[in-house]
Write a structure and sequence with these properties.
Phage tail proteins - horseshoe like beta roll fold, 28 strands, about 10% helix, elongated, 3-stranded antiparallel β-sheet, 13-stranded mixed β-sheet, mainly beta
Length: about 475
């Protein structure tokens, strides 16, 4: 073990501790910790006791960097690529700079990145397509050979996805976060990836002037504000047919023409779903964005203090009567002063997590993960404006349906949290029936998502969708679409 007082243990090297896989964190709190060079098994090599100006920079779904300085010359063990343990989190040294300050004194500047940045340089993976894939299934395909494994996954949603290749694994994981509306929790010590629903956890941390809030500032910006948005879906799909012939969304403004942007969301093949998604995005960028920058005192660094540490993504409360700030929102950026935790800064935003980086996605096509399209562009052109089937996602149980032997599964949905489910029995017919009254158009498209598991048909067995069409002249016809 090391003595955490800076002027003790001043030798360059210490004996290795006999640890097979992972050494314990030498510091339990980030405040007042020191970086430690460790080997590939996370066994300590050198305590960098002379490190100063130590800062950790974190951004939600973004960066995680450690920066500090050392007197010149640096220990020979400190090289680019070396691993550093910082209060239980592992970083890799990426940049070593030999600097000279204004007094002519030599110093070494170190920048280290969280270990998960290594995924950027992993070998590219081949094309892959999933039908009804879950997060664990995608991770089981992405992670082998990377040195990382799957941890806790609390997301049950399933998606139809196609991996088109052309980017690294970190980009693929970030796209997975977006498509499933989740967040990755990285454990760099065990190299495990956990996935949780987006939104953050309310830690109960309260920042109050005179206690742990040094300063509070708010900033209103329209840099990313647009008043007209053009959604673009699969193969150039627009919302014209579901938006009264208008291909864009717009709110009133004093500008002529209004500031505009294109939202590329190529995973959408249905114009109504594209419009709903675009409306959610547009709601976050059609007004000036408000952010809050707060100087905080990390009381968790003090002995025997009950307040927990502040982490990126946490939901916290800030109250400052003088600044007229009373908000409860997420920490989206942090600049943590390790040596002086009372001089740390956090940035808060009222933008919802799943849309917090909207303009970066507004200007880009989805090129990593795409929803697998089961319809052609001609089918899309024939789609009706409204869905005639009511309660098609089982949101309201069996409302609007005549049920014979089916059940609602609240754990496995495609476009929503639930779906209809039937367990087959030999010699037993199970049906789910709904009668609709369509309009006057000549062409209609039936679309559905179906997941079949362990299906064994009897002599007259069949699984599929039967459509009975009745005409005003009294005639009818029956069409059966088999799913097997």
């Amino acid at each position: 073990m090391y003595n955490t007082v800076r002027r003790y243990n001043t030798g360059e090297s210490y004996n290795h501790v006999a640890v097979l896989r992972q050494a314990p964190a030498w510091y339990t709190h980030l405040g007042h910790a020191l970086p430690i060079i460790v080997d590939n098994h996370l066994r300590p090599v050198i305590l960098l006791h002379q490190a100063y100006e130590i800062f950790v920079h974190e951004t939600l779904v973004g960066e995680d960097r450690l920066a500090f300085r050392l007197p010149h010359p640096a220990p020979t063990e400190l090289t680019t690529g070396a691993l550093l343990d910082m209060a239980g989190k592992v970083y890799r040294v990426m940049i070593l700079a030999n600097r000279e300050d204004e007094r002519g004194t030599r110093l070494i500047e170190i920048e280290a990145w969280a270990l998960w940045y290594d995924l950027v340089k992993m070998p590219e993976l081949p094309l892959q397509e999933w039908i009804g894939a879950s997060v664990p299934e995608i991770l089981a395909w992405l992670l082998p050979g990377s040195g990382w494994t799957t941890g806790l996954v609390t997301v049950t949603a399933r998606r139809n996805l196609r991996w088109g290749g052309g980017c690294n694994r970190l980009e693929a994981l970030r796209e997975m976060e977006r498509v499933f509306n989740t967040e990755i929790v990285w454990d760099t010590a065990t190299r495990t990836i956990s996935v949780v629903p987006g939104g953050g956890a309310d830690t109960g941390v309260f920042f109050l002037r005179g206690k742990n809030l040094r300063k509070a500032e708010s900033e209103t910006s329209m840099v990313e504000t647009v008043y007209r948005l053009y959604p673009r879906g699969h193969q150039g799909l627009t919302i014209t047919v579901v938006n009264n012939g208008i291909p864009y969304l717009e709110v009133p403004s004093l500008y002529d023409p209004p500031p505009s942007a294109v939202l590329k969301a190529e995973e959408f093949t249905d114009p109504q779903q594209l419009k709903e998604y675009a409306e959610a995005v547009f709601a976050t960028i059609n007004t000036p964005q408000v952010s809050y920058i707060c100087g905080i005192v990390d009381l968790s660094a003090l002995p025997d203090h009950e307040d927990g540490p502040v982490r990126i993504g946490d939901v916290v409360t800030v109250y400052d009567e003088d600044a007229l700030i009373d908000i409860k929102t997420r920490v989206i950026r942090m600049r943590y002063s390790v040596e002086e935790p009372w001089n740390s800064e956090i940035e808060l935003s009222t933008v919802r997590q799943d849309l917090s980086h909207t303009l970066s996605t507004v200007q880009q096509a989805v090129t990593r993960f795409e929803a697998a399209d089961a319809v052609t562009s001609q089918d899309i052109a024939q789609l009706m404006v409204f869905n005639h089937l009511l309660n098609s996602r089982a949101d309201d149980g069996f409302a609007n349906w005549v049920n014979n032997g089916w059940e609602v599964d609240n754990t496995r949905g495609f476009s929503g949290p639930a779906s209809f489910r039937a367990v087959g029995q030999l010699g037993v017919s199970k049906t789910l029936l709904q009668t609709i009254w369509p309009a006057h158009r000549e062409n209609y498209v039936i679309s559905l998502r179906a997941l079949l598991e362990n299906v064994q048909l009897g002599a007259q067995g069949r699984v599929g969708v039967e459509v009975a069409v009745h005409y005003t002249d009294g005639t009818s016809e029956i069409h059966f679409v088999s799913l097997i």
